[in-house]
Design a protein that fits this description.
The protein is 32% helix and 15% strand. It has nine helices and ten strands. The protein has a three-stranded parallel sheet. A three-stranded antiparallel sheet has the order 4-5-8. A two-stranded antiparallel ribbon has the order 6-7. The protein starts with 9 loop residues before the first strand and ends in a 10-residue tail after the last helix. The N terminus is likely disordered. Its cofactor is Zn(2+). This is Glutamyl-Q tRNA(Asp) synthetase.
């Protein structure tokens, strides 16, 4: 099913091929497709395979097959991040030339020790908040990463507050300096960080609306900061409800979520629609997709 592109809406779904789509990632895929179709926009697919050691061979093609079986077809050929290293390198070089990026020699152990010595909290959502140890230089130690300064300016140490609006969650704000710290854009092994890759790709693909799971909302301030520094327009954001397992935790590949069973695509589609507030009644896949588009609850007012 496709709707003619009549506005400036460009959306995308960007799965990581570390495994097949599970119930949670299918909800995110369906939501992004529905939002694009409900607004007469284009829907793109991007395979986020920058972390190649974690990717499962062939999973990308299987994911595309899962989406096709459900009628979720993109309007252009998919993009693979693993083929776009030159674009990320150009963005990093620009940020470094402008004084926003510096080399970091700290190991995770070093960071934990520095935080503990300063009497700070060690973890935030399982991550260490970087204490800016290497801003003044690495004293010749081997580099482990390239980091982006999280302060208000290159020579301005004031905290940087990022405020944004989510179409479902409402007003959001984060003190990027104290909540996250200077974050990684590239690792010493040559792997690009998700934050840089997604911003460059969204910017170059002209993504106007990002629809994804609520677990990724915390990444948004970092991405907004990179958009500001690289001169990209800020997309509109919608973070969808999470799908939880029987233990109350978010379904994910890391905690053993099983691939979606597609023996009955219509049943799988109806199940994925429920967390989005859609109880579909149609008796065929095309009818169910059309019903879901018509009933999409996050429709924007006015033209897009």
């Amino acid at each position: 099913m496709s709707t003619a592109y009549v506005g400036r809406y460009v959306g995308r779904f960007a799965p990581s091929p570390t495994g097949l789509l599970h119930a949670g990632s299918l909800v995110a895929a369906l939501a992004s497709w529905l939002d694009a179709r409900a607004h007469g926009g284009r829907w793109l697919l991007r395979i986020e395979d920058v972390d190649l050691p974690r990717c499962v061979p062939g999973a990308d093609r299987l994911i595309l097959g899962q989406l096709a079986a459900l009628g979720l077809l993109p309007d252009e050929s998919p993009m693979w991040q693993s083929q776009r290293g030159a674009h990320y390198a150009q963005a990093l070089a620009r940020l470094e030339a402008e004084g926003w990026v510096y080399g970091c020699a700290c190991s995770r152990k070093d960071i934990a020790a520095a935080i503990a010595a300063a009497g700070g909290a060690l973890q935030r959502h399982g991550e260490l908040v970087y204490p800016s140890t290497c801003r003044a230089g690495t004293q010749g130690r081997p580099l482990r990463a390239w980091r982006l300064r999280s302060t208000a300016g290159r020579a301005d140490e004031r905290p940087l507050l990022i405020a944004w609006h989510d179409r479902r969650l409402g007003a959001q704000a984060q003190d990027l300096t104290h909540a996250v710290g200077d974050f990684v854009l590239k690792r010493a092994d040559g792997l690009w960080a998700y934050q840089l890759a997604v911003v460059v790709d969204d910017g170059e693909q002209g993504i106007s609306h990002v629809v994804r799971g609520e677990d990724l909302a915390d990444n948004t301030p970092r991405q907004i900061r990179l958009q500001q520094l690289l001169g990209y327009a800020r997309p509109a954001y919608l973070h969808t409800p999470l799908v939880l397992g029987a233990n109350g935790e978010k379904l994910s590949k890391q905690n053993g979520a099983l691939p979606v069973e597609l023996g009955d695509p219509l049943a799988a589609l109806k199940q994925a629609a429920l967390p989005l507030g859609l109880a579909l009644q149609a008796s065929s896949l095309p009818e169910a997709l059309a019903e879901a588009v018509a009933a999409w609850p996050y429709r924007l007012p006015g033209p897009v």
